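Schema walk-through. Below, the input block comes first and the output block second. Nothing else is stored per chain. Lengths vary across the set, and this one has 365 residues.
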Amino acid sequence: QNFSMLARACTALARRRHFSAVGAVRPPPRRVRGDLCASIGGLLLDLDGTMYTPSGAVDGAAAFHDALRAAAIPYVFCSNTGAKGSSGVQAKLALSGIGGGIDGRLVEHGHIYTASQAQCDYMVDTLPRGAKVFVFAGGNAESVEASFWMQQLRRRDTALVSSWDVRTFLTEAEAKEWGALAAASPTGACVSVVLFSDGSVSGVPDPVTGELGFADWSFDVIKKAGYLLSHGASFVVTAEDSFNVRPDGWPLPGPGMISAMFRTLMYPKGKDLVRVCGKGGDMGDAYLMERAIGMLRQQGHSGDRSTILMVGDRFDTDIRAGTRAGVKTCLVETGCHQLADAEHFPEDRLDFVASSVAALIRTPS
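--- output ---
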Protein backbone atom coordinates (compact mmCIF):
# COMPACT_ATOMS: atom_id res chain seq x y z
CA GLN A 1 0.00 0.00 0.00
CA ASN A 2 2.85 2.39 0.87
CA PHE A 3 4.55 1.69 -2.44
CA SER A 4 1.27 2.24 -4.25
CA MET A 5 1.02 5.69 -2.63
CA LEU A 6 4.62 6.37 -3.68
CA ALA A 7 3.78 5.28 -7.23
CA ARG A 8 0.92 7.76 -7.38
CA ALA A 9 3.19 10.50 -6.05
CA CYS A 10 5.77 9.67 -8.73
CA THR A 11 3.07 9.80 -11.38
CA ALA A 12 1.85 13.19 -10.18
CA LEU A 13 5.41 14.55 -10.16
CA ALA A 14 6.07 13.10 -13.59
CA ARG A 15 2.96 14.73 -14.95
CA ARG A 16 4.02 18.08 -13.57
CA ARG A 17 7.37 17.66 -15.29
CA HIS A 18 5.57 16.44 -18.39
CA PHE A 19 3.21 19.36 -18.74
CA SER A 20 5.37 22.17 -17.34
CA ALA A 21 7.10 22.65 -20.67
CA VAL A 22 3.96 22.46 -22.80
CA GLY A 23 3.67 25.62 -24.84
CA ALA A 24 7.31 26.56 -24.26
CA VAL A 25 9.54 27.13 -27.26
CA ARG A 26 11.83 24.15 -27.61
CA PRO A 27 14.84 23.69 -29.85
CA PRO A 28 14.32 21.10 -32.58
CA PRO A 29 15.73 17.65 -31.84
CA ARG A 30 19.30 17.10 -32.94
CA ARG A 31 19.91 14.53 -35.67
CA VAL A 32 22.48 12.04 -34.35
CA ARG A 33 25.19 10.49 -36.49
CA GLY A 34 27.52 8.40 -34.39
CA ASP A 35 28.58 10.71 -31.57
CA LEU A 36 25.84 10.70 -28.95
CA CYS A 37 26.89 7.91 -26.59
CA ALA A 38 30.18 9.65 -25.88
CA SER A 39 28.23 12.17 -23.77
CA ILE A 40 25.69 9.76 -22.26
CA GLY A 41 26.30 7.87 -19.04
CA GLY A 42 23.44 5.36 -19.22
CA LEU A 43 20.89 4.07 -21.73
CA LEU A 44 17.29 2.89 -21.41
CA LEU A 45 16.51 1.01 -24.61
CA ASP A 46 13.22 -0.08 -26.10
CA LEU A 47 13.25 -3.39 -28.01
CA ASP A 48 10.45 -3.91 -30.57
CA GLY A 49 11.06 -1.48 -33.41
CA THR A 50 14.30 -0.30 -31.81
CA MET A 51 16.60 -3.31 -31.45
CA TYR A 52 14.60 -5.90 -33.38
CA THR A 53 11.49 -6.39 -35.49
CA PRO A 54 9.45 -9.58 -36.11
CA SER A 55 11.91 -10.46 -38.90
CA GLY A 56 15.07 -10.15 -36.78
CA ALA A 57 17.56 -7.59 -35.51
CA VAL A 58 17.50 -4.03 -36.79
CA ASP A 59 20.51 -3.41 -39.03
CA GLY A 60 23.47 -2.52 -36.83
CA ALA A 61 21.73 -3.37 -33.54
CA ALA A 62 24.00 -6.31 -32.70
CA ALA A 63 27.14 -4.25 -33.32
CA PHE A 64 25.63 -1.39 -31.29
CA HIS A 65 25.06 -3.73 -28.33
CA ASP A 66 28.59 -5.13 -28.63
CA ALA A 67 29.92 -1.57 -28.58
CA LEU A 68 27.97 -0.79 -25.39
CA ARG A 69 29.47 -3.83 -23.71
CA ALA A 70 32.98 -3.00 -24.89
CA ALA A 71 32.68 0.58 -23.60
CA ALA A 72 31.09 -0.62 -20.32
CA ILE A 73 28.20 1.82 -20.74
CA PRO A 74 25.34 1.01 -18.30
CA TYR A 75 22.17 0.05 -20.14
CA VAL A 76 18.77 -1.55 -19.54
CA PHE A 77 16.45 -2.96 -22.18
CA CYS A 78 13.01 -1.61 -21.18
CA SER A 79 10.44 -3.56 -23.14
CA ASN A 80 6.70 -2.88 -23.07
CA THR A 81 6.01 -6.53 -23.81
CA GLY A 82 3.22 -8.18 -21.88
CA ALA A 83 3.78 -11.61 -23.43
CA LYS A 84 7.12 -12.50 -21.85
CA GLY A 85 9.43 -11.76 -18.95
CA SER A 86 13.18 -11.20 -18.89
CA SER A 87 13.95 -14.84 -19.83
CA GLY A 88 11.73 -14.58 -22.90
CA VAL A 89 13.38 -11.31 -23.90
CA GLN A 90 16.82 -12.83 -23.36
CA ALA A 91 15.91 -15.71 -25.68
CA LYS A 92 14.49 -13.38 -28.35
CA LEU A 93 17.61 -11.21 -28.25
CA ALA A 94 19.78 -14.29 -28.70
CA LEU A 95 17.60 -15.52 -31.57
CA SER A 96 18.02 -12.09 -33.19
CA GLY A 97 21.80 -12.31 -32.85
CA ILE A 98 22.05 -9.67 -30.11
CA GLY A 99 24.37 -10.64 -27.27
CA GLY A 100 27.24 -13.08 -27.49
CA GLY A 101 29.09 -11.17 -30.18
CA ILE A 102 32.11 -10.41 -28.00
CA ASP A 103 32.40 -13.29 -25.56
CA GLY A 104 29.45 -15.57 -26.21
CA ARG A 105 27.46 -14.27 -23.22
CA LEU A 106 23.73 -13.80 -23.41
CA VAL A 107 22.32 -10.44 -22.35
CA GLU A 108 22.21 -10.70 -18.55
CA HIS A 109 18.91 -10.41 -16.65
CA GLY A 110 20.34 -7.34 -14.89
CA HIS A 111 20.10 -5.53 -18.25
CA ILE A 112 16.46 -6.45 -18.95
CA TYR A 113 13.24 -5.16 -17.40
CA THR A 114 9.84 -5.66 -18.97
CA ALA A 115 6.42 -4.13 -18.49
CA SER A 116 5.11 -7.57 -17.50
CA GLN A 117 7.59 -7.62 -14.60
CA ALA A 118 6.48 -4.12 -13.60
CA GLN A 119 2.86 -5.30 -13.78
CA CYS A 120 3.58 -8.24 -11.47
CA ASP A 121 5.24 -5.88 -8.98
CA TYR A 122 2.17 -3.63 -9.10
CA MET A 123 -0.23 -6.53 -8.59
CA VAL A 124 1.66 -7.90 -5.59
CA ASP A 125 1.81 -4.40 -4.07
CA THR A 126 -1.89 -3.60 -4.52
CA LEU A 127 -4.15 -6.66 -4.90
CA PRO A 128 -5.37 -7.93 -1.50
CA ARG A 129 -5.41 -11.45 -0.15
CA GLY A 130 -8.31 -13.40 -1.62
CA ALA A 131 -8.57 -11.18 -4.70
CA LYS A 132 -10.40 -12.54 -7.72
CA VAL A 133 -8.25 -12.19 -10.85
CA PHE A 134 -9.52 -12.80 -14.39
CA VAL A 135 -6.46 -13.13 -16.67
CA PHE A 136 -6.05 -12.89 -20.44
CA ALA A 137 -2.52 -13.59 -21.63
CA GLY A 138 -0.24 -14.44 -24.50
CA GLY A 139 2.66 -16.82 -24.24
CA ASN A 140 1.20 -20.23 -25.22
CA ALA A 141 1.71 -21.93 -21.84
CA GLU A 142 0.22 -25.34 -21.14
CA SER A 143 -1.11 -24.32 -17.71
CA VAL A 144 -1.49 -21.31 -15.46
CA GLU A 145 1.34 -22.54 -13.23
CA ALA A 146 3.64 -22.86 -16.24
CA SER A 147 2.77 -19.36 -17.48
CA PHE A 148 5.57 -16.81 -17.35
CA TRP A 149 3.33 -14.33 -15.54
CA MET A 150 2.37 -16.75 -12.78
CA GLN A 151 6.01 -17.70 -12.26
CA GLN A 152 6.90 -14.01 -12.01
CA LEU A 153 4.11 -13.42 -9.49
CA ARG A 154 5.09 -16.39 -7.33
CA ARG A 155 8.73 -15.27 -7.21
CA ARG A 156 7.50 -12.04 -5.64
CA ASP A 157 5.07 -13.38 -3.01
CA THR A 158 4.00 -17.01 -3.19
CA ALA A 159 1.71 -16.87 -0.15
CA LEU A 160 -0.20 -13.82 -1.38
CA VAL A 161 -0.58 -15.12 -4.93
CA SER A 162 -1.73 -18.52 -3.65
CA SER A 163 -4.58 -16.76 -1.84
CA TRP A 164 -5.92 -15.27 -5.08
CA ASP A 165 -8.67 -16.89 -7.13
CA VAL A 166 -6.97 -16.77 -10.55
CA ARG A 167 -9.16 -17.77 -13.49
CA THR A 168 -8.74 -17.87 -17.27
CA PHE A 169 -12.35 -18.83 -18.03
CA LEU A 170 -15.64 -17.79 -16.43
CA THR A 171 -19.15 -18.99 -17.15
CA GLU A 172 -21.91 -16.43 -17.66
CA ALA A 173 -23.12 -16.95 -14.09
CA GLU A 174 -19.60 -16.70 -12.62
CA ALA A 175 -18.89 -13.49 -14.54
CA LYS A 176 -22.07 -11.91 -13.18
CA GLU A 177 -21.24 -13.12 -9.66
CA TRP A 178 -17.77 -11.54 -9.88
CA GLY A 179 -19.31 -8.35 -11.25
CA ALA A 180 -21.64 -8.17 -8.23
CA LEU A 181 -18.64 -8.60 -5.91
CA ALA A 182 -16.81 -5.81 -7.74
CA ALA A 183 -19.83 -3.53 -7.35
CA ALA A 184 -19.74 -4.11 -3.58
CA SER A 185 -16.03 -3.19 -3.33
CA PRO A 186 -15.24 0.50 -2.73
CA THR A 187 -11.86 0.35 -4.51
CA GLY A 188 -12.27 -2.35 -7.16
CA ALA A 189 -9.15 -4.12 -5.90
CA CYS A 190 -10.97 -7.28 -4.80
CA VAL A 191 -11.85 -8.09 -8.44
CA SER A 192 -9.48 -7.40 -11.32
CA VAL A 193 -9.33 -8.06 -15.03
CA VAL A 194 -5.66 -8.46 -15.97
CA LEU A 195 -4.12 -8.35 -19.45
CA PHE A 196 -0.66 -9.86 -20.08
CA SER A 197 -0.49 -9.52 -23.85
CA ASP A 198 1.09 -7.80 -26.83
CA GLY A 199 -2.30 -7.88 -28.55
CA SER A 200 -3.13 -11.54 -29.09
CA VAL A 201 -4.13 -14.02 -26.38
CA SER A 202 -3.72 -17.79 -26.09
CA GLY A 203 -5.99 -20.30 -24.41
CA VAL A 204 -4.69 -21.61 -21.07
CA PRO A 205 -6.80 -24.20 -19.21
CA ASP A 206 -8.70 -22.69 -16.31
CA PRO A 207 -7.06 -23.83 -13.05
CA VAL A 208 -10.44 -24.50 -11.39
CA THR A 209 -12.58 -26.12 -14.08
CA GLY A 210 -9.99 -27.19 -16.67
CA GLU A 211 -12.03 -25.37 -19.33
CA LEU A 212 -9.78 -23.99 -22.06
CA GLY A 213 -9.35 -20.26 -21.55
CA PHE A 214 -10.07 -17.70 -24.21
CA ALA A 215 -7.75 -17.97 -27.21
CA ASP A 216 -9.04 -14.95 -29.13
CA TRP A 217 -10.90 -11.67 -28.60
CA SER A 218 -14.35 -13.17 -29.16
CA PHE A 219 -17.64 -11.52 -28.32
CA ASP A 220 -17.95 -13.92 -25.36
CA VAL A 221 -14.69 -12.84 -23.70
CA ILE A 222 -15.44 -9.15 -24.26
CA LYS A 223 -18.91 -9.60 -22.81
CA LYS A 224 -17.74 -11.42 -19.69
CA ALA A 225 -14.85 -9.04 -19.01
CA GLY A 226 -17.36 -6.25 -19.54
CA TYR A 227 -19.60 -7.62 -16.80
CA LEU A 228 -16.74 -7.18 -14.33
CA LEU A 229 -15.34 -3.87 -15.59
CA SER A 230 -18.73 -2.17 -15.89
CA HIS A 231 -19.43 -3.00 -12.24
CA GLY A 232 -16.26 -1.64 -10.66
CA ALA A 233 -13.49 -4.19 -11.20
CA SER A 234 -10.03 -2.76 -11.76
CA PHE A 235 -8.36 -3.21 -15.15
CA VAL A 236 -4.61 -3.90 -14.97
CA VAL A 237 -2.82 -3.61 -18.31
CA THR A 238 0.81 -4.21 -19.17
CA ALA A 239 1.05 -1.46 -21.80
CA GLU A 240 -1.04 0.50 -24.29
CA ASP A 241 0.96 0.25 -27.50
CA SER A 242 -1.83 0.62 -30.05
CA PHE A 243 -0.20 -1.47 -32.76
CA ASN A 244 3.00 -3.25 -33.74
CA VAL A 245 4.56 -2.88 -37.18
CA ARG A 246 5.29 -5.95 -39.27
CA PRO A 247 8.21 -6.01 -41.75
CA ASP A 248 5.77 -5.59 -44.64
CA GLY A 249 4.45 -2.39 -43.07
CA TRP A 250 1.00 -3.69 -42.14
CA PRO A 251 0.07 -3.12 -38.47
CA LEU A 252 -0.70 -5.87 -35.98
CA PRO A 253 -3.25 -4.99 -33.26
CA GLY A 254 -1.58 -4.08 -29.98
CA PRO A 255 -2.85 -4.13 -26.41
CA GLY A 256 -3.77 -0.44 -26.66
CA MET A 257 -6.61 -1.31 -29.02
CA ILE A 258 -8.07 -3.72 -26.45
CA SER A 259 -7.51 -1.28 -23.61
CA ALA A 260 -9.24 1.53 -25.52
CA MET A 261 -12.31 -0.66 -25.99
CA PHE A 262 -12.58 -1.43 -22.29
CA ARG A 263 -11.81 2.17 -21.28
CA THR A 264 -14.89 3.20 -23.25
CA LEU A 265 -16.97 0.71 -21.30
CA MET A 266 -15.59 1.88 -17.94
CA TYR A 267 -16.11 5.61 -18.53
CA PRO A 268 -17.01 7.62 -16.50
CA LYS A 269 -17.48 5.72 -13.23
CA GLY A 270 -14.56 3.34 -13.69
CA LYS A 271 -12.16 5.67 -15.48
CA ASP A 272 -9.86 5.79 -12.45
CA LEU A 273 -9.70 2.00 -12.15
CA VAL A 274 -7.43 1.47 -15.18
CA ARG A 275 -3.79 0.82 -14.30
CA VAL A 276 -1.13 0.70 -17.04
CA CYS A 277 2.27 -0.52 -15.83
CA GLY A 278 4.43 -0.06 -18.92
CA LYS A 279 6.14 2.93 -20.51
CA GLY A 280 3.72 5.80 -20.91
CA GLY A 281 1.26 4.34 -18.40
CA ASP A 282 0.13 5.88 -15.12
CA MET A 283 1.95 3.20 -13.10
CA GLY A 284 4.85 2.94 -15.52
CA ASP A 285 6.68 5.93 -14.06
CA ALA A 286 7.23 4.25 -10.70
CA TYR A 287 7.04 0.57 -11.57
CA LEU A 288 9.09 0.52 -14.79
CA MET A 289 11.10 3.69 -15.31
CA GLU A 290 12.19 4.23 -11.70
CA ARG A 291 13.20 0.60 -11.36
CA ALA A 292 15.07 0.64 -14.65
CA ILE A 293 16.99 3.73 -13.52
CA GLY A 294 17.74 1.85 -10.31
CA MET A 295 19.20 -0.97 -12.42
CA LEU A 296 21.49 1.57 -14.11
CA ARG A 297 22.72 2.57 -10.66
CA GLN A 298 23.45 -1.06 -9.86
CA GLN A 299 25.67 -1.10 -12.94
CA GLY A 300 27.63 1.89 -11.65
CA HIS A 301 25.70 4.86 -13.05
CA SER A 302 25.39 7.87 -10.74
CA GLY A 303 21.65 8.23 -11.30
CA ASP A 304 22.10 11.74 -12.74
CA ARG A 305 19.13 11.96 -15.11
CA SER A 306 20.76 14.55 -17.32
CA THR A 307 23.16 11.81 -18.46
CA ILE A 308 20.51 9.13 -19.07
CA LEU A 309 18.99 8.61 -22.53
CA MET A 310 15.70 6.84 -23.29
CA VAL A 311 15.78 5.42 -26.83
CA GLY A 312 12.70 4.11 -28.62
CA ASP A 313 10.52 4.17 -31.71
CA ARG A 314 7.25 5.47 -30.21
CA PHE A 315 6.30 8.93 -28.97
CA ASP A 316 3.34 7.75 -26.89
CA THR A 317 5.30 5.18 -24.87
CA ASP A 318 9.10 5.52 -25.10
CA ILE A 319 9.47 9.28 -25.54
CA ARG A 320 6.60 9.99 -23.14
CA ALA A 321 8.14 7.77 -20.47
CA GLY A 322 11.51 9.46 -20.85
CA THR A 323 9.93 12.91 -20.71
CA ARG A 324 8.04 12.09 -17.53
CA ALA A 325 11.11 10.52 -15.93
CA GLY A 326 13.15 13.65 -16.58
CA VAL A 327 15.77 11.96 -18.79
CA LYS A 328 16.91 12.77 -22.31
CA THR A 329 15.00 11.18 -25.18
CA CYS A 330 15.88 9.89 -28.64
CA LEU A 331 13.53 8.62 -31.36
CA VAL A 332 14.87 5.98 -33.74
CA GLU A 333 13.09 5.77 -37.08
CA THR A 334 13.11 1.98 -37.41
CA GLY A 335 9.67 1.22 -35.98
CA CYS A 336 6.28 2.84 -35.47
CA HIS A 337 6.96 6.59 -35.55
CA GLN A 338 9.05 8.99 -37.58
CA LEU A 339 10.24 12.51 -36.77
CA ALA A 340 7.41 13.88 -38.95
CA ASP A 341 4.95 12.44 -36.41
CA ALA A 342 6.23 14.77 -33.66
CA GLU A 343 3.53 17.36 -34.37
CA HIS A 344 0.92 14.86 -33.19
CA PHE A 345 2.66 14.45 -29.81
CA PRO A 346 3.46 18.02 -28.73
CA GLU A 347 3.72 17.15 -25.04
CA ASP A 348 6.38 14.45 -25.50
CA ARG A 349 9.77 16.15 -25.44
CA LEU A 350 12.21 14.90 -28.05
CA ASP A 351 15.90 15.77 -27.65
CA PHE A 352 17.45 13.64 -30.39
CA VAL A 353 16.46 11.66 -33.47
CA ALA A 354 18.44 8.94 -35.23
CA SER A 355 17.96 6.72 -38.24
CA SER A 356 18.63 3.68 -36.01
CA VAL A 357 20.52 2.66 -32.86
CA ALA A 358 23.57 2.13 -35.07
CA ALA A 359 23.78 5.93 -35.40
CA LEU A 360 24.14 6.42 -31.65
CA ILE A 361 27.67 5.10 -31.29
CA ARG A 362 30.74 4.80 -33.43
CA THR A 363 31.12 1.16 -34.40
CA PRO A 364 33.94 -0.49 -36.30
CA SER A 365 33.44 -0.24 -40.07
